[in-house]
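Our consortium's second objective concerns turning raw sequence data into structural hypotheses that experimental partners can test. To show how far this objective has progressed, the report includes one record in full. It was chosen at random from the queue rather than selected for favorable results. The single chain below, 462 residues long, was entered without modification.
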Amino acid sequence: MHLYTIQWQGFVGCLMLGLLMNLGIANAQKQIPGKRPNIIVILADDLGYNDVGYMGSDANATPNIDAIAANGLRFTDAYTTCPVCGPSRAGLLTGRYQNRFGFEDNPGPFRRTEETIPGIPLRETTMGEYFKELGYNTALIGKWHEENVPLRNPSARGFDKFFGFINGASSYYINDNSQGKLLNGLRPVESEEEYLTNAFGREACLFIERNADRNKPFMLYVPFNAPHGPFEVPDEYKSKFSHVKDEKRQTFLAMINCMDENVGKIITTLKNKGIEEETLIVFLSDNGGECERADNTPLRECKGSIYEGGIRVPFCMQWKGVLPANHVVNHPVIALDVLPTAIAATGASVSGEWFLDGVNLLPYLTGEKQGEPHQFLYWRFLWHHAVRKGDWKLVKHRDQTDWELYNLASDISEQTNLSQQHPDKVKELLDIYTDMSDQMLAPQWGWQPDYCGSYNINNIKN
């Protein structure tokens, strides 16, 4: 049994794991030389693979995001760990497959037990907690998507500053915040007059301005909820795309453009404070594009699917003077890699005791290491299953009896099932998938009682 499959139980287990994590971080911190970079991770919500200009879109909705790719690297084969929001964010924040701690579905009405609390367990260490231990000022501005209990609030998970909402979606027009969903830390914001994407951009820029001149660096995580529904946007953005006849697509592009404008404000603030070259910037989407409005060309299907359209996402990164500019990376990478890469950028070592599934990409991006960072990538989302090794991908969806096999190098759209022609490859990948799934917890909560437990917090008959 792998050490990381051990289930820690109770307070003592949580405390011991926390001590191991913190001691590992403290020891790593001693190795940090000189000035450490600021870290900014920007996350879009339901953005399509081809919704950004640097991946081929001609909509001209993302000039500032495209600039990140031009000033750094873009990844053609980048993935998230799940085709829906909550689990994929849990993987990003911990650097571990979220299935390891039962976060396999969005928080829903069903629970494994009455005591089950959805969210990243306290025994797991979040990005905020890692960087807090490394001496960084930390902030989360945007969407969290966990259970709304104080111990799950970002303010209790390593983030000095939290401005955003807890659940999976929010109106973009908050106004008097009578429902109390928009929070500043643990407290509801009294009112918010700005369109929410602009409010998140404003707060992110304010955090940079307040921390740029301090003696210690900052880590800023900006998980926008754009362009996730509800699909509403100020007319000033929508008018830019008046030539788009499909109104659903027009609104979606306008929401993307507003988010991009705020990405530009963040970068401008870095430049004005003279710290752009001292900052590692990462941009990606939390899952594949929204099914009716996004452009996932040339991928098959969309959000919610384990075909490429549900899990392959836009992903780019810049660190001027350290990472090469306008560089394309074709090897498979995954959102799990963001955390160890960001930690390594500080000069700290990524400890094996953390049992991260993500990989530090820096040596592969600078040319220090050759080859692929991952031997394979794995996905399990309730009834959806997949594994990728090299160019080969094995996949099975709900109600399917047989596994499908695709060669993504020659068939990125997953149109030609090669399972009958390559039974040995099917067996090889199925063995990998089975070994990984055997290490994972059963889903602990969600929307599907057959998978996530039958206890219903809404007391609705199953």
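The partners drew two points from this record. The CA atoms of residues 190 and 239 lie 31 Å apart. Residues 37-366 form a domain with the Alkaline Phosphatase, subunit A fold (CATH 3.40.720.10). Both points have been shared with the crystallography group to help prioritize constructs.
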